[in-house]
Amino acid sequence: MHQVGGVFLEKLLNADAGDHRGSRIPCGQGHEAAFVDYRIKQVTTVLSEIGIKRAYYHCQKCGKGLIPKDKDLDLENTSFSPGVRRMMARVGAKESFEDGRSDSRKNWPMWWSPSRR
Ligand SMILES: [Zn+2]
């Protein structure tokens, strides 16, 4: 079931054929970045792992690669979809809550065990 949804999502996200925006695009620093090739990124989504095809550009003056589609999809420097990152953040918040509770238990034993006075 999830796998099917993942295949559908993969098709949807690749419907733009990699989001090619011409042979040259502004790099954001006042230069032009040249199209190099297409790169496939494996992304973990809430449905399944999918491959996303993205046009890769490179600015010679900055010496940096540029993938506009990653920016649009909020996938820069990560291979987890925004939905998965939200789920991970929720788990992280729960863990820190647990940590905080055990800390206060250590610092205030009388609060946590009322029998010991
Ligand atoms: Zn540049």
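^ zinc ion complex. The chain has a mean pLDDT of 84. The radius of gyration is 23 Å.
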